[in-house]
Every structure is written in structure tokens, then in C-alpha cells.
Amino acid sequence: MPLSQNARGAVMMTLAMGVFTTNDAFVKLVTPEMNVGQIMFIRGMMTTAMLLLLARHLGVLAEIRQMLHPKVILRSAFEIGAAITYISALAHIDLAVAATILLSLPLAVTFGAWLFFKEPVGWRRWSAILVGFAGVLVVLRPSPEDFVPASLLAVVAVFFTAGRDLTTRRLPAALPTLLVSLFAALTNTLFGAALIVPFGGWSPVSGAALMHLAVAAVLLLAGYQTIVIAMRSGEISVVAPFRYTSLIFSLSLGFYFFGERPDAYMAIGASLIVASGLYAFYREKRRASPLASATEPRMPH
Prior knowledge:
The chain is mainly alpha-helical.
């Protein structure tokens, strides 16, 4: 039986979270051997090459000048900031901790949409945002003896990623998605090359590290495509909550690759983040419903 649009979006979102999280695991494997700039450069070259071949095959290179649209450039700037901070965080904290902090992304996007685009946010969703960010603080381990400063880099990565997603929502509809991904991969590669020396210089690349980055590049490309399909399928209020499947993948991969075991801080913080995010999605669905608009009293924003 053919999948409904909502079911298709849910499946694609789950696949996207799986490949993105697996990409993170392979990147984390090479962080002891090379710096952030070198990782971005090598992985970026591979991803850019694959995207160029795909763009050529699909005939979208004729529109390549559209990549210089100001919003595409701004989006890539956010993407670069997210890559630098998140890879830096992965080098020092558990994969599951980094992924859990990243679960607060939908809440950060809601906050950014209110701040920059004046989208209405009622008191219930404000409460969900506050609870979600309280969950982030719990994951960060509030006691001085347990706090890991590098985990703040994952928090910064959340806001860079939110900026990227908000900018993506404002891209022209006619702009090919493949060109947006290509420009992001190309600029990440160039900035990675520029950061190699400031971040400690070039390190010898082992065969295993090269293989890990090649796998990461393929996964990154797959993630780019599946997330776009997911966000263009079905209702966003139905599809978007499947982002939280990344927690299952990160816990499993963290245990398998790195022997990570979540503690009470992780469990409580993740529960708060996921619960608040799901409630925020629920409220967004209610707000968007014409029936709810007609029957519910308007709340001050």
C-alpha cells in the first residue's frame, strides 16, 4: 500500500535522524586524530564532489548563479558556525549528550521565529520553551564538579542551527534544494581549509580515519536529501516530532562505539526536552487549526 504523506514524512524524518546521528558518530571517531578544520575540509571535499556529480546529472548546474542569493549565503554562514561548534563539542563530550542538547532545536526555532519574524507565540508554548531549556541545563550538569565547559559549544550549535533553519524557511521556493546543499558543502570545505592552521595544523590521515570520513560524507549527503523530503511531506506538526528518534540512535551508537551510558542528568534532561518539544508541536497544531481559531479565545502574546 502506498504511504500517506504524513507516514512518508515520518519515515523520511526517522531515516534523516538515523543517518545524521550515524554521521556524528563517525566524525567523533576521528576527532582524536585531527582538528575541526581538517575534518570539515576532508569531509566537505567528499560531500561537495558527490553533490556536484548529482547536480550535473540532474541538470541544475545551469542555475548555479542562484547559489549567490543573499539568503543562501546567510544560511551557509549559520551552517559553518554550527559545524565548527558541534564538531568541537563532539570531540569533548558524549555523543548522546551532544545529541540530547540538539533536541532543543525546535524550541530554539520557535523562539527565533518570534524574535525575528514576529510569529505569535502563546503563553503555553513559552512555558514549553522554558521547560525545554531547563532540560538543557540539566543535561549540562549544573554542579561545578560535573560541568563540562565544552558542552556549551553544543548549545551554541543549537542556535546556529536554528538560524540556518529559519533562513531556509525564507529561501525562494524556485531555488533548487540541491544548489542550497551544494553551496553549504562548498563553503564548509573552504572554511575548513582556512581553519586547519589556526586549529593546530595538518595531521597525518590514517586509512581508517579516511574511511570513517568517507562514510560520514555519504551519510551527510543522504541526510540532506531525506530531511528535505521529510519537511516537504505531510503536516509539519505530525512529521517534525519524529526528530526525537535521534535520541534512540544517539544512545545506541554512543553505547556501541564509545561505551557511553546515560546517567540521571541525561535521563531527566532528555525527558524535559522531549516532553516540552512534543507539547510545543501539539500547541502549534492547535493554533494552526481553523476550528481551534474559531472556537478558542485569543490569548495575549
